[in-house]
Amino acid sequence: MKTTILINCPDQSGIISTVTSFIYRNGGNIIYIDQHVDKEAGVFFMRLESDFENNIPVISTLKQKFEEELAQPYHMEWSLYIGSKKPKMALWVSKYNHCLYDLLSRYNSGELEVDIPFILSNHPDLEYVAQQFDIPFFHVPISKATKEEAENQQLKLMEQYEVDFIVLARYMQIVTQKIIDRYPNKIINIHHSFLPAFAGAKPYHAAFERGVKIIGATSHYVTEELDAGPIIEQDVTTVSHSHNIKDFITKGRDLEKIVLSRAVKLHIRRKTMVYNNKTVIFT
């Protein structure tokens, strides 16, 4: 049975050998290990995969042993994931369908190792997409007057379907602290990011008017500060005077799909660690 351990703790000598020795003593075989030290912060990070195929009974006590023998002495913050159970990913959308179609296509082909219990939207427009992929669709309209009631409905659905994390596939509503607190570092968003940056309702039009030469996209975990959460993935593409506004939008949306799918894969494979509003991304 496969296990994945994510660790961060104050940097000190002997951590790697102590962790690997623990796995060996308990009958595990290490199949992947990666580590990083933030020298400025003095923090050690590690991701380790191991296989307990020849000693499955030890799995039941592994967490307790790890906590007592390693986590407490080394003051670790850690997570241990056992088995290959697919996480449940809820997709939240509004009216744009490009990111939704891309993720569903990757899911349908087996590229994304997740279960998608439902698609949720504040508009009914994309229900036909959910029907095409035979996935339940829930329309929860939101206005200033109904914001709190809508959030309660959203959380009820999340709990009912035992959702592990949320992907905002161009969900055009601000997610409030109430939901963020329930899913810390488990809500993934995508947004355009230009150099220079352009805010507002028509960023591609503004970028075109400014004559930018690079447009980009950023995927990040959602925090209370809008579009300022820990970054998971970014990418850019070049544009020139020969491109019109439609070209900007097309190239930007292509980039959004790619960057969001990469971020989702990293999260699914438990290759991200958040620390001080930054991320460590393991290869």
Distance between the termini: 22 Å
Structural class: alpha/beta
Residues in β-strands, percent: 25-35%
Approximate helicity band: 25-40%
- Compute the CA-based radius of gyration: 21 Å
The largest beta-sheet arranges its strands as 7-6-5-8-9-10-11
- Poorly predicted parts: none
* pLDDT averaged residue by residue: 91
Number of discrete helical segments: 8
User: What's the number of extended β-strand segments?
Assistant: 13
Secondary-structure element order, N to C: EHEEHEEHEHEHEHEHEEHEE
Identify the overall geometry: globular
Could you describe the largest sheet, including whether it forms a barrel? 7 strands, mixed
Protein model, in words:
With 283 residues, this protein is of the alpha/beta class. It has 8 helices and 13 strands. A 7-stranded mixed sheet has the order 7-6-5-8-9-10-11. The chain has a 4-stranded antiparallel sheet with strand order 2-3-1-4, with helices on one face. A two-stranded antiparallel sheet has the order 12-13. Helix 3 (98-108) links the parallel strand 5 and strand 6 (119-121). Helix 3 (98-108) crosses helix 8 (245-268) and helix 7 (203-210) crosses helix 8 (245-268). The longest helix has 24 residues, at 245-268.
